[in-house]
Structure formats: C-alpha cells, structure tokens
C-alpha cells in the first residue's frame, strides 16, 4: 500500500513540495516509492497525450490567447493527475517490468518532478532504460511497455526504445494520429519513393486537408471520395467528381464556396494522383527542392498557391513537427 506521505494522486499537479518528497523517497528503492513514482509517470504520460492532441488541433479562435492556453495547460495537468489516480494500466506494467530489471524509482520520480514543474513533456524515454535490460518481454505486457521496440520485437540495451503511440523524438501520439498513420502509411511510403518527399510530410498534409480523416470529401451517396489532398477537378480532369462546400480565402477573408473535387477509387489512387501533380506541375518545383525540411516544404506549398489559407504553412508545419515527428 502506498504511504500517505508519498501519495500525490490526491494533490494538485503543481505541488512541487510533494514531488520533492517523492524524489527523496525514491532513493530508498522501496516498493511503495516505486508504485508512487510509476503512478506519477502514468500521469505524465496522460498529460503528454493531452498536450499532443491539443498541439495537433488549430487554436486560433477569437477566444484563444496566452491566458487561456496557460489555464488549459493547468487543467490538463490536473486532469492527468486525477486519471492516473484511477489508473489506465501503465503504472502496473511499469512496476512489473522495472522491478524485474532492478531499475531505481528515482528515474521515474525525476520525470514526474519535471512534469509537475511545467517542464516540456516531450520526455526522452531512453533515459529510463537500464543498461542491462532483459532482451524481451512477451504478450500484452510487451505491447504496453514503454521499453518495447514494437509488438513481437525484442528489445536490447543498444536499441532505441519505441512505445506504441510515441514518436522517435519522444512525443506521444493520440490514438487517432496513430490510426491515421497505420491506415495510410504504406501509400505514403510508395508516394515518397516516387516524389522524394518524406512520407510523414504527405501524411501531415492529408491530415490537415481531411482533419485526420474526419472531414473527408464525400460523394453524393455519402461514400468517401478518397480525396486526401483537397485536389480540385479542373477542366482537364476526366475522372470521377465529388461536390463539396469549402472555404477559400480572398484577400485574407474566408469565403464559403461550392467546388468540384477529384474522386478516386482508393486512397492509394489519391496518393498516386498527388504524386503526379507535385512532380509534373512546374509550379511545385521549389516544393520538391525544399522537401527535406518540414517548414520549407509547407512554405513552398503555400507560396506555390496550393491553398489560400494564410495560415496553411504554419498549420502544416505544426502537424508534421508535433504530431508526426
């Protein structure tokens, strides 16, 4: 049972004094300290997911400002603390794995302390991997472990750990982001081989155009047009067409219009058509030239007139760097 002096789940997320006590007790390596540290790490993990989800959602409304962002951050931290009190399963997995690996709870406590002080929650999980970690775990426990290299894979001390839902840079992905990647990743990889554009850049653009697949352009019968990139059906288009309401910016002012868009038989066809458009249209030559950098790629698209939204490049860059990096 967790000692009352170390149980932070009933305290404010920003209680740095309590977190300091947790860090001190973690040095003893007791099971109670490990349980408390694991629970705090679980709270930090939840908070990272909330932060990632908010970063992937444009927040440029009239009521959005620095003050509202500050209070939202505080709310998310407290919500994470409350959810961790109930538990989502991660703390139990951490305790089982770390106990078998003889990892000191202090590493988790330090991470929890950083979270409580409002530090950047893009935690480098490699700092928590023991130097002599066992080679593998099996079954569901491996799939949930932040030290696993993937389902069915074996982890070693020399390998870079990867949690399902955590990017290579240590950022947490929301379930809808990971689902979007898994659904379209192979098509993006194929288009990348054709265009030279990194797959995640195109996935980011598809996410921006479709709202992570939630606002796809629909055919008249309600079925998907599979148009992931908002490509319109101009006079030269001989394929199927879907009509949809869209927002265009004229001199910076948004206007609602009804436009015709290209429709495809599959998402693979959408990526193929996008690849043809980018590589064959001279206006996108500079986009391809700057495709090694997320910001350069996004700004190149906007300068080439791909979209009329004045914030298009900023939104696309944010998605690529914060949700897919």
TrEMBL record:
Instruction: Please state every residue range assigned to the domain named Mannosyl-glycoprotein endo-beta-N-acetylglucosamidase-like.
Output: 171-324
Tell me yes or no: is Hydrolase among this UniProt entry's keywords: yes
- Where found, per UniProt? Periplasm
UniProt entry keywords in alphabetical sequence: Cell projection, Cell wall biogenesis/degradation, Cilium, Flagellum, Glycosidase, Hydrolase, Periplasm
Which Gene3D superfamilies did the record assign?
A: 1.10.530.10, peptidoglycan hydrolase (2.10.70.40)
Q: Which GO terms describe its cellular component?
A: periplasmic space
Q: What is one GO biological process annotated to this record?
A: bacterial-type flagellum-dependent cell motility
- Xref: InterPro entries: Flagellar_prot_FlgJ_N, FlgJ, Glycosyl_Hydrolase_73, MGlyc_endo_b_GlcNAc-like_dom
Q: Which GO terms label this protein's molecular function in UniProt?
A: amidase activity; hydrolase activity, acting on glycosyl bonds
Indicate the family of this protein: In the C-terminal section; belongs to the glycosyl hydrolase 73 family. In the N-terminal section; belongs to the FlgJ family.
**PANTHER family, A to Z:** PEPTIDOGLYCAN HYDROLASE FLGJ
Instruction: Provide the function of this protein.
Output: Flagellum-specific muramidase which hydrolyzes the peptidoglycan layer to assemble the rod structure in the periplasmic space.
This protein's name: Peptidoglycan hydrolase FlgJ
- The source organism is Massilia cavernae
The gene name reads flgJ
């Amino acid at each position: 049972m967790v000692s009352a002096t170390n149980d932070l789940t009933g305290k404010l997320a920003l209680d740095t004094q309590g977190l300091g006590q947790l860090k001190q007790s973690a040095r003893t390596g007791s099971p109670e300290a490990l349980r408390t540290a694991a629970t705090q790490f679980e709270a930090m993990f939840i908070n990272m997911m909330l932060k990632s989800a908010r970063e992937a959602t444009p927040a440029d409304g009239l009521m959005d400002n620095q003050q509202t962002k500050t209070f939202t951050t505080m709310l998310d931290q407290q919500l994470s603390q409350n959810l961790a009190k109930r538990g989502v399963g991660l703390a139990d997995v951490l305790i089982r794995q770390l106990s078998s690996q003889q990892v000191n709870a202090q590493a988790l406590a330090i991470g929890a302390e950083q979270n409580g002080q409002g530090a950047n929650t893009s935690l480098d999980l490699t700092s928590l991997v023991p130097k002599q970690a066992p080679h593998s775990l099996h079954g569901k426990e491996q799939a949930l472990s932040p030290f696993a290299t993937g389902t069915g894979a074996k982890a070693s001390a020399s390998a870079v750990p990867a949690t399902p839902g955590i990017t290579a840079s240590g950022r947490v992905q929301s379930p809808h982001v990971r689902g979007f990647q898994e659904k379209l990743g192979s098509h993006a990889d194929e288009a990348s081989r054709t265009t030279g554009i990194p797959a995640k850049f195109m996935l980011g653009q598809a996410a921006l155009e479709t709202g992570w697949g939630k606002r796809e352009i629909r055919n008249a019968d309600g079925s998907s047009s599979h148009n992931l990139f908002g490509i319109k059906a101009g006079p030269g288009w001989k394929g199927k067409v879907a009509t949809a309401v869209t927002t265009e910016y004229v001199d910076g002012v948004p206007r609602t219009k009804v436009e015709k868009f290209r429709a495809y038989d599959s998402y693979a066809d959408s990526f193929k058509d996008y690849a043809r458009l980018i590589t064959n249209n001279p206006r996108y030559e500079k986009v391809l030239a700057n495709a090694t950098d997320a910001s350069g790629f996004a700004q190149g698209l906007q300068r080439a007139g791909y979209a009329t939204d004045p914030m298009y490049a900023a939104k696309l860059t944010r998605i690529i760097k914060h949700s897919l990096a």
